Amino acid sequence: MHSSAGFEMGSQVSVDPGAQCVVIVGGGFGGIAAASQLQALNIPFMLVDVKECFHHNVGALRASVESGFAKKTFISYSAAFKESFRQGLVVKIDLKNQTVLLESGEALPFSHLILATGSSGPFPGKFNKVCSLQAAVEAYEDMVRQIQRAQFITVVGGGSAGVEMAAEIKTEYPDKEVTLIHSKVALANRELLPSVRQEVKEILIRKGVQLLLSERVSNLEEVPVNEYREYIKVLTDKGTEVASNLVIVCNGIKINSQAYRSALEGHLASNGAVRVNEFLQVEGHTNIYAIGDCSNLKEPKMAYHAGLHASIAVTNIANSTKQRPLKAYKPGALTFLLSMGRNDGVGQISGFYVGRLMVRLAKSRDLFVGTSWKTMKQTPP
Question: Strand pairing partners for 235?
Fold first, then answer.
């Protein structure tokens, strides 16, 4: 773009048709990977997110138990992407005029659009508040204090976040009593190998976590969450009562579809994810891509996959402008690593079981924090 006219506040100036600008909606793992690759290719882009900093939420649970860790999990967008970053809420995507409308009234013109809106869920696994980097870090430091005060802790939900949370607490504070309540029998993600899911269970038992399986919390609405109390009564549908000082909820991840819901009606799955073809293009829209959690692909929602999707989308945007053939995304055999505290873990790489030594080396020690700082071209604190 030779002029910045298209980016003036609230102006509806259309960009000259020859100009290329990729707008990325959402700055999660997929969004920052796409932005840094476009940056490297010198393709003009604009990354939009409601927050002022990227949240490396793979480290969120560690940040909840280890003081000082949270500041490594928040990374400034503008430091990485300068004037190619806009903090704002997308209120509408105008397909006819190829603009993304922000709540501030600003309209961002696009030649290509990458939807990378991700998913949200309960704190501390996800962080959804719009606030300063300092306030975000402080929210986790406060969570550390709540956990330190509590002797009896109940974790609700035994998917990957719940099992990692329980393991993090027991690793950092072995003397605390942790109960994990899960509505199903098997723990962690259903896409994982049975041997991996069994090992997850054994690690938790070895660490001394009490497991209440195939029970559902029935009074969750009345229970204070993430706050220390002298006595909290947690009830399950089987009539079990668990006395707690602190309840942490680790289930109920939802796809963030509000930004594109009205524009792409008819192209969404029932959970709000966007239906894409093998090139990760939205059905019927060759210049719109969906990556990461908000794309409807048959694979678990993971940071690792979002990064793979980002390079396919960026490659295809670059190729399409040069009339080169597009690259298809093929979900491979599953790679999924569960960090069970800094000294333990289990998982699978390309569909094969890997034990604690591999996972500890690959993930558990630093939870890939360094990788995100590298993507954002900054050094961790």
Answer: 241
- Contacts (Cβ under 8 Å, ≥6 apart) of 357: none
| Paired strand residues for 55 | 74
**pLDDT band (50, 70, 90) for residue 19:** confident
* Listed residue (206, 212, 187, 207) closest to 197, CA to CA: 187
184 φ, ψ (degrees, to nearest 5): -110, 175
Question: Taking the model in full, what pTM does it have?
Answer: 0.93
Asked if 153 and 248 count as a contact pair (C-beta separation under 8 A), the reply is yes
Which of these, 168, 169, 250, 254, lies nearest to 217 by C-alpha position? Answer: 250
Cα separation, 115 vs 240, whole angstroms: 43
Average pLDDT, the chain: 94
The answer to whether the CB of 73 falls within 8 A of the CB of 60 is yes
Hey, is 301 helix, strand or coil?
A: coil
Phi and psi based region of residue 115 (left: phi greater than 0; alpha: psi -120 to 50; beta: remaining): beta
Residue type, 263: A
CA distance 141 to 143: 5
